[in-house]
Write a structure and sequence with these properties.
alpha+beta, 6-stranded mixed sheet, 4-stranded antiparallel sheet, 7 helices, 24% helix
Amino acid sequence: MKHTQPQPQPHTLSLPPTHFAALSPTAHLLAHLTQTPPTRPSGRTPTQSRHPTIHTNSLSHTNGSAVVRTGDTTIVCGVRSEILLVRDIPNYRPPPLTEEEEETDEIPTLALLVPNLVLQTGCSPAHLPGAPPSPTAQTLTHRLLSLMHSTRLIHPSCLRIYHPSSSPTALNKKIIAYHTLHISLHIISLSGPPLAPAWSALLAALLTTILPHAYYDPDNDRVLCSPDARKAAKLRVQGMPIVVEFGVFRGRVLVDLEAGEEGLCGEVVAIVVDGSGGMDGGEEGVRVLRIEKSGGGYVGAGEMRECVRLAGGRWREWRDAILGAVGD
């Protein structure tokens, strides 16, 4: 019997995609985007976003709550109301009240909205156990507060508590206290820029917030909250602004960045849009409320118009997800 020797196999050097991405992330992303058609490592196209999933009223001891998940990012938001008495406010000046309930500066002046964002330990490889707190959480908290003020998300009249003996007309009402909304956001897992999903979680939680009926008790000289749920009122949220973020990598605009793409984009654009003014969120119906841009010089007028168009489509996705969860 004739025995044949096995032929030696040529040595080949091959790496799985995960190792290739860790060793050379720039070349890995560029190799995907130069394909025909261009595809990102996650399988999405450059302008395709991750589908959001929202659950509301998930926390029992809050006035409103929401859990938002998009891709591998999961954020929990809870809203809790506390009473701020007017007599405890130094140098308090009553706002000018009108029949039309015009906007006043009570919310930013009295700090009636108090957000706080926490990056949970282990939510991403950048947040390891035992590491000192990073300034990322403080920066995000400030950006969320700034967005709530600039978009006028909450009308001050929703947070006022009037004296029962006040005149029924708006001009003669006496304010004795305010509802202060403490908004806590916890990032359980993070994959990509956190501003857009954090804002959507905050918005969904506010849309489910129900404030108890607060009244003045003259016997105890205190403001109390009624336990009767029938007297509670739903918080009125003005509009539905949504944050959409973009990144530019080698002259290519990417929508809804992931963790592996965020650090490779030298130019980042965040657009706040609202298409809730009776339109369907198309390019013509979207109002641009705010634009933030940092780094690079690729995005010009033409690219910015395209980003606004893409933001209109993303606004419709978030609107359908939020309203589907809230039930309105």
